[in-house]
Specification:
The protein is α/β, with parallel strands linked by helices. It is 39% helix and 18% strand.
Length: 281
């Protein structure tokens, strides 16, 4: 590889395209920016700038890991989500842009007064912390079964200077008292069928199956949340979950059986079913 920024961008993107397709350029730019300690604008402002020997060695090392399929977020150790930079690890899912819709929907229904939000299966804490960052008057509780995820989310709260989000280990609602009530409950739970071929493709090959896969054609966790959430919601409170693009109808049907007759599904910016939400009346 030639050591100028422009040459590295061109050559590395071409080499990576077979693996990442249209995302190859994004991946290469992210790795280069990390090595250089510069924003992406730097790559275009100084295209003929040469990397030092140390920088080039570091880039080659990171790029080799990406060629093996390892997600960029795990290589770098962080992922930007909402307005936050979040530490990530292979013990949690990588936050994805489409999950920001869950944050938007939660913020849209939150009361204007101080209240409480519960985030089930919090992982990195992405959803919980994004809500906490926008509403300092809101107390956000994030729950995860994995102690490593609880520790990581707590670290992300500390690193982003957010004191109104707290994280506890729990198997869904099990660690909560039925005296705990929330105005909004959000979740990005496991919702992929264990036989889905996408589990053998792309970044998800490296992510924890426990955070991806659910029984009952991917609906087991969503059904459990729908059945249990009313105990922990105030009157008029909202429940909302992220799910697969082809699961909207099935989620609404499952929730109707659980006592949510007015559940509705919100599409993402690609026009795909993404969030189903319902209000406790």
């Amino acid at each position: 590889m030639t050591a100028t920024i422009s040459a590295l961008l061109a050559d590395s993107t071409t080499e990576l395209t077979a693996l990442s397709g249209g995302a190859a350029g994004v991946d290469v730019r992210a790795l280069l920016c990390h090595v250089l300690g510069q924003p992406s604008s730097y790559l275009y402002t100084w295209p003929e700038r040469k990397l030092t020997a140390a920088q080039l060695a570091q880039f080659r090392q990171l790029f080799a890991r990406r060629l093996q399929g390892e997600p960029v977020a795990y290589i770098l150790g962080y992922r930007d989500f909402w307005t936050l930079r979040l530490n990530v690890s292979p013990t949690t899912l990588i936050p994805r842009p489409e999950t920001e819709l869950l944050v938007e929907q939660a913020l849209a229904v939150l009361p204007a007064t101080p209240c409480r939000v519960l985030d089930l299966g919090t992982g990195t804490g992405a959803v919980a912390l994004a809500i906490a960052s926008e509403r300092p008057d809101v107390t956000v509780v994030g729950i995860d079964l994995m102690p490593e995820a609880v520790a990581l989310a707590s670290r992300n709260a500390h690193d982003n200077h957010l004191s109104n989000a707290h994280f506890i280990q729990s198997d869904w609602f099990s660690a909560l008292s039925d005296m705990n009530r929330f105005e909004v409950i959000v979740s990005n739970p496991p919702y992929i069928d264990g036989d889905d071929p996408h589990l053998q493709q792309g970044d998800v090959r490296f992510e924890p199956a426990s955070a991806l896969v659910a029984e009952e054609s991917g609906l087991a966790a969503i059904r459990h949340i729908g059945q249990t959430a009313p105990t922990y919601l105030v009157d008029g409170g909202w429940l909302m979950v992220e799910h697969g693009y082809n699961q909207g109808e099935a989620v609404r049907a499952a929730w109707k059986d659980a006592g949510w007759p007015d559940a509705k599904t919100q599409q993402d910016y690609a026009g795909l079913d993404r969030i189903t939400l319902a209000q406790r009346l």
